[in-house]
Amino acid sequence: MMPSTTKNYQLKCVANGHLNSEKETTTYCTECGSVLRVYYDEPANGLRYPLDSLVPDPLKSNNSALTHLDRLSETYEADLFAKLDFEHPTGCFKDRGSYIEVQKALELDADAICVASTGNMAASVAAYACYFKIPCFIFVPEKTTDAKIAQATIYDANIIRIKGDFSVCEGLCRKFAESGNYYMAGDYVFREEGQKAFPYEIHEQHKGEFDYIFIPIGCGTNFAAIHKGYKELKEAGEISKLPKLIALQPEQSSPVVEGIFKKKKIIKKQVNTMAQSVAASDPVDFEKVLIGIQDTDGAAYTVTEDEILQSLKEMAVEEGYFTEPACALPLAAFKNNLDTFKNKKCLFILTGAGLKDTKTVAKHSLSSPVLSPDIDKIRNYIESGYIEMQKESWGKSRDTFMAQLDMDKGHQKLYNQYVSDFNKKGKTLSNNEIEVLQSLVFNEDIDLDYPAEVLDYKLTMRKHGLVQAKVKLDIEGKEIITEASGVGPIDAILSAMKSETDNIFHLNVSNHEVEILSPDTDSLVMVTLTLANNDQEWVSKGASPDTLEAVIQAFTKGLAIATKSTPA
Questions:
Q1: Alpha-carbon dihedral of residues 38, 40, 46, 49, nearest 10 degrees?
Q2: How many Cβ atoms from other residues are within 10 Å of residue 388's Cβ?
Q3: In whole angstroms, what is the distance from residue 502 CA to residue 562 CA?
Q4: How many angstroms separate the CA atoms of 491 and 117, rounded?
């Protein structure tokens, strides 16, 4: 059924009832600065929007799926469902609101649309603005993932990346909107009108009533919209009761939940959570969330970062849905409160796709080493226990898992040599550094003959001028001292080494990468060199708390690999 439109509504302040004009504001009350809400003159049968006219959604042809979670329901003895809002065109629930906001911007004859976002809304507003041919300016926090920015970029949005969190971006975007005839999209009144379509979709897809709906929240707008939609359905006689709405936030970013218990809005100076899509220090729609919880006899919960990780993995493994971290909040909170939710009919909202935030998976899982194309090495890797350890170690401390790794004698000896060398320098490896070193060793060829080894070196550096390097080499049992200069220590060392090793096998350094594994000054450093000779290339790695040592390792090892793989 096509939604209807109407102009028979008023735009009022939620806190004080002040009447506002959408020609003057679409964000906050012009008298007191509180949030706004649309109040219709009379109830209606079916979904309606506060617009002059409505263009059918050009990007979305179907409602996001509502599915039963069979395995989790059996495991936890409850009737569990999920609304797969990551199926929306841009991969998250925001599209419902963007669809209406962009049409309101066109109706108000705005010259452009601007929005502050942690990423999801940026992509969503950009997509609809692009389709409807209205210029779009996106203000995003510095930590927004590349995947989310890429989505907005491909839709021709103008990206403005800001140092700070969402609230800082929101303040700057607001000033930008006021500086011209720009419509400010975001967690405001007309987005609420778009996102209230959620309950109407549920009512159309499933005639039964849910006991609880679990909603991840940042600013609280989606929660408020869902409450508003259910209120409209009840007023129209479409449903007999309101489901209990559950507000969910990460423990490390929970101003709304804290405010619920204190019965007042809380603003945090800073929030930090892996669930970046719900990281908001200033929850603009707190008052609406509080009203929704009181009206539905709902509740508010927080979950820890570890609980987010475990539930994120569990949803993927048990039900097959790979989502962004915020989507793990419903399952995590449900499991923490089984006495309340057991045997109840519960709906989890899965708000965004996992491909929007792959860095979380990469950060909290053991990386797989790159293996040489050798079947014996592959079998050794499989039999080592590394793969099982990868699965078991998700989101857990690495202390015990790394100790369980079973290497062959050759690789274990090499690993022990690395650790011994680091200990001599006074370096103790962290868990993350142990992981990286284990992965490096797995890919080492322990049957290499080294044509050249560095016995010692000396650098002379001055504030102005080139760096001088003096290197003592062992080449086929003969000690040779060589010197060279370079623009920096790495350049000087490599130039000195190459002045002699090129007589054995000529290699060019076509690329080098230096990865520092922690912010500590004694961090393990991983150096990757790409070495080339004519059309051939070899990649070699070195690891040490000393960057130059890692460079030397990578180069001498690369020389050994190159000479072994090239016929004399």
A1: -40
A2: 12
A3: 12
A4: 42
Q: Which amino acid is at 238?
A: E
Alpha helices, H only, 77-145: 95-107, 120-131
Could you give the CA distance from residue 50 to residue 38 in angstroms, rounded to a whole number? 8
Contact 155, 134 (CB under 8 A): no
Of the candidates 449, 247, 210, 435, the one whose C-alpha atom is nearest the C-alpha of residue 344 is: 210
What's the predicted TM-score (pTM) here?
Answer: 0.76
Distances (CA, A) of 491 to 433, 538, 551, 554: 26, 19, 10, 14
- How sure is the predictor about 439, in pLDDT bands with cuts at 50, 70 and 90? confident
Q: Give tens-digit pLDDT for 56-70.
A: 999 998 999 999 999
Q: State the Cα–Cα distance between residues 57 and 59, nearest whole angstrom.
A: 6
In 3D space, the residue among 249, 198, 239 whose CA is nearest the CA of residue 222 turns out to be 198
What CA–CA distance (Å, rounded) separates 250 from 303?
A: 5
Q: Is the four-CA dihedral 494, 495, 497, 498 of positive or negative sign?
A: positive
CB-count burial class (<10 Å; 0-12, 13-18, 19+) for 232:
buried
The DSSP string of 235-302 is HTTS-SSPPEEEEEEETTS-HHHHHHHHTS----S----S-GGG--SS-TTHHHHHHHHHHHT-EEEE
